[in-house]
Amino acid sequence: MEKIHDHDIAYLHKKIGKVVDNLRSYNSMLVAFSGGVDSSTLAALAYQALGNKAIAVTANSPILPERELKSAKNTIQSIGIKHIVLPYDILHEPGFTQNPKDRCYFCKSFLYNKLSVLAGELGLEAVADGTNTSELNEHRPGYKAIREKAIVTPFIDMGITKHDIRQMAHMLGLSVWDKPQQTCLLTRFPYGRMITLDGLKRVEMAEDYLYYMGIREYRVRDGGDTARIEIMSEDMDIIKRNKECIVEYFEKLGYKDFVLQ
Fold first, then answer.
1. Are the C-beta atoms of residues 151 and 129 closer than 8 Å to each other?
2. Residue 1 has pLDDT above 60, yes or no
3. Interatomic CA distance for residues 45 and 54, integer angstroms
4. Is 41:181 a contact under the CB 8 Å cutoff?
5. Distance between CA atoms of 17 and 160, rounded to whole angstroms?
6. pLDDT average, residue stretch 143-162
7. Residue 183, phi then psi, degrees to nearest 5
8. What are 13-67's pLDDT values in tens digits?
9. Helices 162-171 and 6-23 meet at what angle, rounded to 10?
10. Rounded to whole angstroms, how far apart are CA atoms 154 and 38?
11. Around 212, how many Cα atoms within 13 Å sit in the side-chain half-sphere?
12. Are 165 and 38 in contact (CB under 8 A)?
């Protein structure tokens, strides 16, 4: 994203003010915090609006890569808001490992049930999620669960887009303002494939390998014996230069072949 132009600054200040005013209408709030740009921006604005009456919570489950949890912890330190890491073995939720087509709906339902209970225990009035208006045009079965659980969505309420959020994050000095969009490890498996802890860890290790090679945007789709690697075209040279090493490492993980997509 290019530098914020002077004529955009007043617009962004207005947008930020609208969100902060919205958040101040609550006495206290739990912010669902994944560490991405949306939840980071929401956490920063909630802290600005409510101070210590806002708490960010990260559900540490097997579908969250360890590197993302580490990144979330680093980001939260720069924001200053209180942070709770909540251990959550989602694999034990009924039907979750069967990986149905509406898995995102069930995943969000399970998660927000747990966060709502925690909010009640902490005496917090609301649970907030960083979903924005740009995502309403996409297939988002998880949003249905958000609505059903009465989760607060300030960015949707205030008409905030993904582009707005990135610019707001940039203005707020958040290092994740240009972070590529991340999805949970569950999305690496085709619907109906049984989800196991070993399978999730294998994909996580495969993606870690690409990450530490310097590839910024990546997905490793698990096809059983085949790993389908999705990267940006500008990173193709990294893959080509290190193909033998990648093949050797992926074979150790149990993949017999990998395909670039």
1. yes
2. no
3. 10
4. no
5. 12
6. 94
7. -125, 160
8. 899 999 999 999 999 999 999 999 999 999 999 999 999 999 999 999 999 999 9
9. 100
10. 11
11. 8
12. yes
Give the amino acid at 57: V
> Which 3-state string (H, E, C) describes the chain?
CCCCCHHHHHHHHHHHHHHHHHHCCCCCEEEECCCCHHHHHHHHHHHHHHHHHEEEEEEECCCCCHHHHHHHHHHHHHHCCEEEEEECCHHHCCCHHHCCCCHHHHHHHHHHHHHHHHHHHHCCCEEECCCCHHHHHCCCHHHHHHHHCCCECHHHHCCCCHHHHHHHHHHCCCCCCCCCCCCCHHHHCCCCCCCCHHHHHHHHHHHHHHHHCCCCCEEEEEECCEEEEEECHHHHHHHHHCHHHHHHHHHHCCCCEEEEC
Out of 4-18, 64-78, 142-156, 163-177, which region has the weakest mean confidence (pLDDT)?
4-18
Q: What whole-number distance in Å separates Cα of residue 64 and Cα of residue 32?
A: 14
Main-chain phi, psi angles of 227, to 5 degrees: -105, 120
What amino acid is encoded at 182 in this protein?
A: Q
* Least confident residue range of 8-12, 29-33, 182-186: 8-12
Which structure tokens are listed for 22? 């919205």
What is the pLDDT averaged over residues 79-108? 94
The stretch 107-114 carries a mean pLDDT of 95
pLDDT of residue 9: 85
